[in-house]
Amino acid sequence: MSRSKNKLIGIVLLAGLFAFLLYQFGLFVMVIWLKFHNPSSSAFMRNTLTQLQAEQADAQITHTWVPYDKISTNLKRAVVAAEDSNFINHSGVEWEAIQRAWEYNIRMSESGSERVRGGSTITQQLAKNLFLSSDRSYWRKAQELLLTFMLEAVLSKQRILELYLNIAQWGKNVFGAQAAAEYYFKRHASQLNASQSARLAAMLPNPAYYDKRGNTRYLQSRTRTLLQRMRMVEVP
Known about the structure:
The protein has 236 residues and is mainly α.
C-alpha cells in the first residue's frame, strides 16, 4: 500500500474520531442542560408519536411535567423496587443484574412465555428514553452506557429519578407520572397510594400491553410483590 493511501486512511480515521468526540461532547452539553431545565419530550416519546400518527393522523401524546416533590413517595418507592432496587448505591450500571435478566429472558422465551425482565438500571433506561432509538444494536447499547456515565457524573440521584418518572411510558400514548395518575386513577401524582403506585410500577416493562389488556393475573401478582418490596428500598 502506497504512502498516499496510508495517509488518506489516517485522515479518514482521524476525521471519524473527531466526529465521534464532537458528537459525545454535544450529548454531554445536553446532559448538563438537563441539570437546570426540564425536557418537554424525549426521543422515545417522539418515536412513539410518529408511530401513532402513522396509524391516526391526529394522534397525540399525553404528558404533563410534575416536580419531584409533587410525586407520591409511594410511586418513587414502587418504581425503584420494580426497576432498580440498588438505585441509590450503584454508579449507573449493574453488570450482574444484566446477566440475570438475560438468563431469565432466555428461560421465559424457551417456555413460550411473553414475560420479560430488564437488567438496565433506571439511569440506563433514562439515557435510552431521552436520547436514543428503540433499535437493538451493539452501537446503541454502547452509546447508552456512555450516556449513563454522563448522567451519573452530572446529575444527582434525585434529578435522575425525577426525569425518569416524568418521561416513563405508562400506556399506549401516556407518558410520565402525572399523566398516568390521571389516566388510570383520576388523581394527581402526589395522591397515589401504595397499591396504585405498585400497579403503575408493575406495568413498566410493557406498559402499552397492560394498557390494552387491563389488570391481568400476572399484573395483579406483580403488584402484590411490589407492595411487599416497596418498604425495603431507599429513594432520594
